[in-house]
Write a structure and sequence with these properties.
This protein is mostly beta strands. It has one domain (2-81). It is built from one helix and six strands. It has one helix at 56-59; strands at residues 2-4, 9-13, 20-25, 30-39, 42-51, 73-81. The longest helix is centred in the C-terminal third of the chain and has 4 residues, at 56-59.
């Protein structure tokens, strides 16, 4: 299972126990869905991240997120190829 974090990581976790298996720092918070697709039998995971608008709902009301509410993040789509 894959998930993104407000800190800018995409994380693969074991669906049975939630243990982190892998992570990658996107450098910007995830802003869209994570999709999985296949091309010629190879599986890929694509993650949309970035954007210029962050809400109190996304970052919460904690002071540690105050700078993030004012930051313009680059928009990126990062694609990972999965291996067996």
């Amino acid at each position: 299972m894959f998930q993104g974090t407000a800190e800018g990581k995409v994380v693969a976790v074991n669906a049975k126990d939630g243990q982190e298996l892998w992570s990658f720092n996107l450098g910007t918070p995830q802003s869209g869905g994570i999709i999985s697709y296949a091309v010629d039998g190879k599986q890929y995971i694509a993650v949309a991240a970035g954007g210029t608008l962050r809400s109190q709902v996304w970052f919460g009301k904690e002071p540690k997120w105050s700078a993030a509410l004012k930051t313009n993040f680059s928009d990126v789509v990062v694609v990972f190829g999965l291996s067996e």
